[in-house]
Records
---
Amino acid sequence: MKTKQWRLSALVLGIVVWITLPLTACEQFEQRDKRFYYRALWNFSLRDNLKELDIDFNGIDFGHSNLYESLLLTGANNVSTIEDKARKETLRFIASRPILPPNEEAIAPTYMKLAWRAQNTFDEAHALHRSTYDIYVSDLSPAEKDRAILNVLAYYQDSPYAMTPQRLDHQRLDRFPYSKTFRETFPLFNATIWAYHYLQVAVYDPLSAAPDLPAKQQAVQPILNTYHHYLEHPPVQWTFMPLVAEYSPRFAEQYPAIANIFDNLHMLHDTISDILASDQLPTWDAKRKEIYRVLDSYYLASADATNPMVLHESPFPHSQH
Amino acid sequence: MKLMISLALVLLIFWPLSARALDHDNLDPNRPIQMEDAYAIPQGEIGLESGVRVNDRRKGKTQFIFQPQIIYGAFRNTQIEIQSDIFTEPHTVRGSNKSGDLHLGVLYNFNTETLTLPAFAVRLEADFPTGVRSKGVDTQMTGILTRSFGRLRFHVNAGYTVLGSPQDRERDGTYRLVAAVSYPIGYPHRFRETLIVDVYTRQSDLVHQRNNTGIEIGVRHQLSSRIVLDGGLGTEFVGPSDRSVITGTVGLSVGF
């Protein structure tokens, strides 16, 4: 009887191997590769101490996923579905004052299945964003904050999903055949996305300069007011996304690698919006291939040695806002 | 039991309401029902999970089960687990999971779900005979599949357990099949609850008895990013004479 049971177990094992081995040869086989954030005592300092800003960041998390899912499912051929329905859903979610980040896989189940690797790249860069905010809001000394930021950067860069810390030629990255499709077709939602990016990059220097929590709250309030004004009146006159050096020059000077990562992250968001909105890439498969091509060739740190978009001189970007 | 409930309450009240990571949509067995999805917790995460299950049986005394567990995302796509369920009425427990057994498990997720492929995972487990009336090392292997259609996710768990040293009329091996669905409640306004329903059938622990077949329903609620609460109910409508009339589970998971 015992032999029979072990034979049965071997059979089950064989079935598992039989199912999974061909998986690895499948074109769409992708590993999930989720990684936990950098663990430290200052984790969630922002959530604990500057709730209002944290809540707005939680609202932001909804926007991109909702946009990507809507572009994908509508074929980006219905302006009012994106500009009115999807954008207003995003604004309603932001207005609901979410105290926790939303589950992005529930917002964009189709997009996550289309381009998981790109999403995981976003997730890890967003975790770096969150960690830097937490450090800036924590009660660490300036030297400890500096050390902590370098530690989270090293942790981030230890991942195959890390974006390049090199300064990329964003103007060239904005000249693909499909570039600008999204902003030209959906200017309101595009300006809303850029308003999110404004909030994300504009708070670093005020947070850094403010000596204590009440001062930090006071320092970010004008930025929150401006952000909410942008949500009501999207800045459609902007011709390019906000850059870290424009709004937090001290942060960009002190941590150029992180500033570049965030600018590249926001540029990748724009590039993927264009790919999803463009009818030059008419099928989901074509969109997926292009997303992965630009990700692998231009955005991931693993491409640095051959990346033609890397700017070897580092001019400060000029303001376009 | 009072101690466990007190501990849970203390954790709930005093644990800082902050964080992200361990999430209500990542489904682990017994939290709160037996099905699980194909995904491991993120690499590097540590999860402490605990629950209390009440099993009101058609025959025999009502049983309480305490389910402390530690989960660790040891590698990418791989979680390891240490668990030891404690039962009241420990001498009436049949099957592989005896009261006080040391349970070690590994879950490996092969792939994430894509447009054409479901997510697959395999779970390997061993129960060491550290518990009451326990003999021999029991082993279990389970294949797991997750496939979503929109926000609705389907899950299949198929497992086989080999008992190292069956006692009395215990079977020396049992299979288990679970089919489940999960759905995030509240979209697009709220992202803090997941509803889970499963139906299952498993070979009875003793020979010459019918399969235990039942249905379970549960909810996982994200209290904070670090803490997930869960609650579930179930019943077995077919099975041996001591099958469950109703089971109820409450638990919490803390990730850090």
Note: The helical segments of chain B are 2-14.
---
Amino acid sequence: MNYFVNEKGYFGDFGGAYIPEMLYPNVEELRTNYLKIIEDEDFQKEFHQLLKDYVGRPSPLYLAKRLSQRYNANIFLKREDLNHTGAHKINNTIGQILLAERLGKKRIIAETGAGQHGVATATVCALRGLECVVYMGEIDIKRQAPNVARMKMLGAKVVPATSGSKTLKDATNEAMRDWINNPIDTHYIIGSVVGPHPYPDMVALFQSIISEETKKQLIEQTGNDQPDYVLACVGGGSNAMGMFYHFINDEQVKLIAVEAAGKGVDSGHSAATTSLGKEGVLHGSRSILMQTEDGQVIEPYSVSAGLDYPGIGPQHAHLFKTLRGEYVSVTDDESLQAGLLLTQLEGIIPAIESAHALAYLEKMKFTGKENVVVCLSGRGDKDMDTYMKYFDL
Amino acid sequence: MNRINKLFQEKKNILSIYYTAGYPNLGDTVAIAEELERSGADLLEIGFPYSDPVADGPIIQASSKTALDGGMTLKLLFEQLKDLRKTVSIPVLLMGYVNPMLQYGVENFCKSCAEVGVDGCIVPDLPMIEYEELYSGAFKENGLTNIFLVTPQTSPERIRKIDGLSNGFIYLLSSSATTGQNLQVSEGTEAYFSRIADLKLNNPTMIGFGISSKETFDKACQYANGAIIGSAFVKNLKADDVAGSVKDFMKTFKS
């Protein structure tokens, strides 16, 4: 079974480039150049240098002893929360900004939900001196004021998306519209493994550093680079794809992707895409998305702005359909409780996104021998408001 | 011969009007078509609304949202168009995004189009290769033409390919832009239009995006077989006087 992209830009039945003609030259330019650029020795050198000196990689793989005791397994946390800017998102923005420079682009656009990808994009634009415009739903701008301020301080222009539901999906639409209107000088840094080919593959390649490091660290710490389980949360799915990437062909490693059930899968307020979705096309690729019978996209809900997306990346859809990955979900309540538990057992406040992955440990049965890696994709600073309200802190 | 080929054989300076099905009121779809034909439109593009119309500017986004909120679906649209051909004789295209069409089922969609007398489709985010490999059969079987878009950035090779797959007309975007902006015929645009003319394509061309007035329409007609008006028309529709607002708008095109 091939779990990776084929020469037509598909992962099994999913992927492709469903884009209006106005975007064709932009996407085609990327498609014909991305592998050449990424595989270039100079690019690799610069990419890895920045990951090391600027992002602070490799991120630690930390054996969480008290959490391990609690769940009766060896639980390792891949500490993406310790990256510069506080999440895995920067791995991708570093890669894409170097790529944009090599394509001669002068202007960068991005979409953001919670603001993590927006901050990571504004950061690399400041670093390289490029103009930066970030689209963000009007509602999210209100919910995530500190990240909006960070982006502005970094020199980015934050443009409110006022169409539709005024959240991540609409910010993505606005970014695509900007790209249509600025086809020559602009590069669109998509923040997840979504969008038209080659984005899902390209973003996965940049995020694959997560599993590449994890394998080396597992050998050092356990003598075996194959854990029993790998867990990650999934909105669009970029941290999960990075965490899964180098384990995908190790068929005995179980891959568990945790979606946001919101107030419950059947509550009408959920973002559990694989449970609620059907095959279709969203934001340029064929995948699984939450939609009405008429093919209109349904607004998702999750307490976590980073998981509040009605689709998943096409490679995830393929892993789901082929049963290579197990796609599950946990609720708002379960993830907030898991966030508190990690904080009190290990002294780490996780992003609510990452807390979704942790919450699923509660539902697993272990014998004490299993090695389990959980991607701690981001830190919880940005979520303090939500935690404070929920736990009455 | 289908209605579209016939139209292009018989007429020059073809005026095509786009509007969103179910806007301003859910039940206006056919009434607008009838009024447009009476008022001198040559070709109609009826948009089936989508929740995430990335190629569209604010006006068509808003009309789509109103239509969807009002309950418009593809299924309902085909019901509304059931008796279209009793009162409307000019060619009609459906325009929309690929996802609603996929959920309806592409073959079913083509059949429904044929049943109600729709002549073809414009689906901006349906990739050429998917159309060619998967769907062109169903389109042909049902006598539908698929209209492709060309932008100033489309390469000559790709335009030739599009010409080969087309049987109707080619939709030239005046600039690489979302809908609803004003046509500025700069030197660059003129060079692009002449470049297209020099290719001596098999299919006629229509210019769209940014055509909002008699003046811009006339300008576009210097370079193509006609032009398409969308946002400007939709913006002008009045919910409480649909027929009147169609008439008034169309009057401005009679010289």
Note: The mean pLDDT of chain A is 96.
---
Amino acid sequence: MNPLLDSLAAIGRAAIGFVREAGALTLFALEGLSHLLRPPFYWRRFVMALTEMGYFSLPVVALTAVFTGMVLALQTYTGFSRFNAESAIANVVVISITRELGPVLAGLMVAGRIGAATAAELGTMRVTDQIDALSTLSTEPMKYLVAPRLLAGVIALPLLVVIADILGVMGGFIVASVKLGFAPLTYLHNTFSFMQAGDVISGLVKAAVFGFLIALLGSYRGYFSRGGAEGVGAATTGAVVTASILILAFDYGLTELFFSR
Amino acid sequence: MSTPPASVPPARGEVPRLRIRGLRKSFGDKRVLDGIDLDVPRGTSMVVIGGSGSGKSVLLKCILGLIAPDDGVIELDGRNLLALPRRERLAQRARIGMLFQNGALFDSLPVWENVSFGLLARRMVGRREARERAADLLAQVGLAASVGALSPAELSGGMQKRVALARAIAAQPDILFFDEPTTGLDPIMGAVIDGLIVDCVKRLGSTAVAITHDMASAARIGDAAAMIHRGRIIWSGPAGALLDSGNAEVDQFTHGRREGPIQMELRR
């Protein structure tokens, strides 16, 4: 027994496990996407997934955005007042919300809500033979369960982020105009004159990627769930944790891609 | 231990509905199916018995295409399902009906949509006609049409089994599979479900394969029987001969004796 070799072996096993998991996830994603290109497509399932992911996530995303905008305005004011730059609050709020906080916070909220629900639903279907039953009824489970969710994720999250952007800016506006004494019209003018289409579009592209990741991870973890209730629980936790980490990692990567010069 | 090549010999020249040869499947080092040979002639109801972990469910999943076997042949009317292109294999799957052990009804759909799911998936009917067909099918398994509006969670275990049976027979399959059809049911409901299975199979003129370890159920459903043990068919013959097979393992299993060759093997 050589402790050094044992440690290296453990690191090697972990690395192999990571690569294997990443490969399996990539193949799963490609198979899911390939079903979007081949008929039949289950439009009813897509509408259901879109409603669940978009419409029913609206309250939690809206509240998160409003409070984030309010806190951001307050914190910015406190910090910027130290060097007499309070007038930049509107600019900071709009750029932070549209580029970063809108998509990331909406993504994390939806990951908690939809990632968990998807993993739990598919995991339960797996352990109760419902996924096998689909196969015996001439229905490809990936096409019926996964493909509509992937498409819904790509569409629903940008729509949510548009609303989150508006509400986040509105939260900052309320605090700035009601509590901090800014002139409302001046604040709005500063906001719209500073905001650029690229800021909003980059946030929406991020949101589409995050929506895809949330649907993918929830589906993947649930689809390969094993071992009854405990396995479904582990799949649910795994889906939320992995999706959240990937959202943050991809956020950095996309920010590098869009804004680094 | 010899492996009989056929369970019930088909008539001379007749291709069995289901023919399995040399089916093998391992999970890691564990060999679960070790060369299964089985014939099921048309119109026969075959019961496959065997203890827990004997390979019954894996055999069923291999036949249904849910697990890929390592080796062997699975023929449906003389066509090897394992050698068919994917599209043809899916088409052949439409000829198969399956009743899962716990029903496996889709929680997110109402009962009527569960029953007619296969018809809708294969574009055989529109949604309105599917609903009418579901009511007919529910009647065939002794359930009122109003049950169609309920969700599976609102049904008792026996009702769920009936709905699952209605779903299995909806597309009038050529061959029906039943995985432990009476598991979790009281003896009376078990007998009711068995009776419905026999009626449905006769009405459709289908072939049936039931996997069970319930001897009363096996006697009610089966024309022919086979016993699987350690991944091999160790006995096959008429279902009526199960209790007097002359095979030590079958005798021990069917009479539920603690002592015998199977238990001795477990002790090793």
Note: Residues 3-259 of chain A form one domain.
---
Amino acid sequence: MSQAATELIRISGHAGTVPGAGLNREFQVCKLVDTTTCIGCKACEVACLEWNGYTFSETTFNNSYQTMPETAWNYWNLIKFNEHEREDGTLMLLMRKDQCMHCEDPGCLAACPAEAAIVQYANGIVDFQEANCIGCGYCMTGCPFNIPKFSPKARKVFKCTLCNDRVSVGLEPACIKACPTGCLHFGTKKEMKELAETRAEQLREHSGYREAGVYDPPGVGGTHVIYVLHDAKNPELYGGLPKNPQVPLMVRLWKHPLKWIGNFGIIFGVVGVFIHYLRYGPKVVEGDEDKGHGAKP
Amino acid sequence: MTNGWIDIKNTDMMLIMGGNPAENHPCGFKWAMEAKRDRNAKLISVDPRFTRTSSTADLFLQIRAGTDIVFLGGLIRYALENNRIAKDYLANYTNAAFIIKDGFKLPEDGLYSGFDSEAGKYDFSTWNYEGADGSDRQAGTVRHSPDVVPGKAGGATPPPHLPPNVAFDLALQHPRCVFQLLKRQYSRYTPETVERITGIPRDQFVKAADLFTSVRKDGDMKKVATIIYAVGWTQHTFGTQIIRTAAMIQLLLGNVGRAGGGVNALRGHSNIQGATDMAGLYDSLPGYLKAPVPADSDLDTYLKRITPGSSKPSPWASFNYYSNTPKFAVSLLKSMYGDAAKKENQFAFDYLPKVDRDYSWTHIWDDMYNGKVKGMMAFGMNGVMIGPDTNKNINALKKADWLVVGEIYPDETSEFWRAPGITADEQKTINTTVYRLPCAGFAEKDGSMTNSARWATWKYAAVPPPGQARLDQDIVAEIFLRVRQLYKKEGGKFPDPILNLSWAYADAAHPSLSQVAMEVNGKALADLTDPTTGQVIKAGQQLPGFAWLKDDGTTACGNWIYSGSWTEAGNQMARRGNEDPSGLGVFQGWSWSWPANRRVLYNRASCDPDGKPWDPSRKQVWWNEAAGKWVGNDVPDFKPDSAPKDHMGPFIMNPEGIGRLFAPIGVIADGPFPEHYEPIESPIKNPLHPDQSNNPLVKKFKTPYDKFGTPDEYSIVCTTYRLTEHYHYWTKNNPMNVQLIPEPFVEIPVELADEKGIRGTEMIKVISARGTYMAKAFVTRRLKPMMIDGKKVYQIGLPIHQGFRGIAEDEGRDARTPANLLTPAVTDPNAHTPESKGFLVKIEKA
């Protein structure tokens, strides 16, 4: 797993070959979050902060157990709480660990214009390379899960790395290690998918959750963080998990057809200017000689 | 716990009530989740509010705080009515068949037979078994029962005792047999009554009762259910009786002693079990030996009083393990007073203080308020925050001469004079001298910690204490050595117990906890030989276990139940073997569990009367006919060579050898069977007996702070609790915890908020007869209005963590009021625990 974790298969804003792309590999990593055994203890929140070196954030009580309304640039892992009343009048306290989903087809990476600011490793981890980040925030538009967050101080964007630094040396992510109930699992995508499906089936057969299922949305090519939900038909109940997340159309257009149209536009523009110059020579503005040294500020 | 944390994974059914393990014991709760994942175990959560434990439950029922006995009594009735009981277990392992004396009366009017309304207590003489062949009248031939309320010095009537030969009816038909009385007692707890008192709709109750008792469907004994609780059950004026009701259900269903079963108390601190074992309560000595009272004029009288004689149906055998009490008590005296404890001076029995009255928590504060207690040493706890009626306690501290606080942070106790409401002018008038001693934190100390499962685990110091902080034992040692010096120099009324106290540590000023632990385990003071095996323990050697203890002064042992924890083979608590051949989570080689490294108590009851496991897939111990002894995956909690045909009872610590459905002779002061009483502050009169609404044994203090509210003014039921994000009162000094829950709040139902025009996050006041608590409103659907006895009743709850010292508190961000300002100082008559869960309040916008 460790080798796969450092091998690149895609690079943002990069034309040409990517070393390692197209090779056949195993060990796509995956985090499984079983929301039916999550107890909202927030051990994962604290483990994330401690491993990644973030300290105290000032928070205020917001009529919920939830630490803050959304993840932050320095708070990558947040349990989202929702009190949900079912049709039969019974209550559910839904708790979902929110963090980067590490999409197979990452919208952030697609949207990013900066060379190598976002990379995807062969094991599926989508990682921000802050040294290359230009702080444009396009990744925030590209993400259907509202995960990348801008730091006004650093003027760069940050998010969960799936503990790439731990995973690349054979350790599990910090949140997994901290989880006391075993609601978090980590392994290969194949194993986690099987485990999740087995658990969902158990919930359907033995716990009366007829709509229990696995969240691994195809709209982004599947994710490297998957959920078991009591009610997979209504993922929105779990702190706004999108039902059918997609990379936004504008990002797709901008990075594919529009990019080429734009490139053609630029090329035609330059070529046109050159032809124009050849045919008509330099443009002379009459009575303009005195202004040649530029305007004063 | 009768069982253990890991053992929860073996269960088929969990009733979690009076506790919220997902939030307060998240690491242990993994085993509940494992039982669900691996065994499809069911979880029923019954709580005043929908908690994070409830979120994982198969069934949640919202109960009115303080009505647990009605729910559990209803469960007993349901199990009996639907024949979901363990018949063989019941007849052979409990006192269901025992016949009770004529004249015993059930509390249909709220009182058992023998109530003395003037003294406010019971005469227990009818709460007893009938002797077969009149043996109950031979008072002189048996030893007294261990169970006498201390403080009744030199009474004219001798305390009642159990008859040695008990009348019984194995058919369970005799109208005065325990089984028939039990049936009658709980026949009143119908689903309708449950609904009327607890607020749980009857169909929901029946659903829960059906689910829980389904483990005993058609009498099949294979499945097992566990009951898990915490202080939500203890903190009531009838807390002990709630737990007893749970124990009775488990006996009825045959769930005690079995893997995945039992009655399991979750302790709130890592070592609160250890503190209790070492005599955390004033009326006990280490190892739960009863403390001497003034009537115990000499050692012999004392030992006679606390050592039970066996009491059983004549064809049965009873181990009556407490018949060894004199060995435990004399070895303790030898451990405490060394060579000064001699046969000639009754092993220095006179040195022991005699308990003449109630010295429990609320009494300490009441005595301080009344000027009887002049000073207090508070170590390892935040006294102002933890007890009920904070205002009274702060006012008591104002009257004290001195206060010593050993802590790792400046806390509310050491700064009680900064409590909200005390003005700068008033501060000048407070003359209490406060000494604050910086102590070492848990990671800076070694020693043992005993968890809820009775596992004593040795730990090592990770870092040295910072700055001037010192180890607790060093502080205590220095105080002791200086006091001893003063007694040496100046004499005094009775210097002997201080001067002769055994202090045989290599470094007297810095006792090593290893040496203390060895002392607790005990050692031989003369060469000892086991008559059956011929094994010899030389004088000075560590004892292998409590079976070696003697009452002739040849052994010393600081706590008999810990004997075996540090033997000649070394520190057993430091063992880290992780082999578990049975797969039941027994882990015999990991740390050490009292007693005798047993992991599940009463495990003989996991087998049928013939000695075969009820469930062959969860084998704990069993009778090996060929070897003529009990063997198994756990240490048998039984006489190892007692063959099943001897019919020895599995509950060897009771003189009857059986589990007590009926608690005789006042071992539980307020009734042989639990009866529902309303909390002292309650929205209704007890529908079962309005003229005896509360527990008749509850007493109230008389200071101006001991005020009680009535439902016409205070109509809302309030309870208190902890959150998973905080640990009692000290994580508010840790930024990581503070950011998770930055401010105190009050959880209130949406309907109540609408009625009062309160929106979430608005500041509100919660007012009881004793004080006003301020915090932000947490408007939630997790608490719903309830119909109680035809009346709409709201229930609210608030966490206990925040006060007036901590990161957010110091920044002035908090309301600075401790939660226990609201709670009353009334207690359970058995365990002296205050009623913090279930009292009356009103709320207002701040």
Note: Residues 117 and 133 of chain A are 5 Å apart (CA to CA).
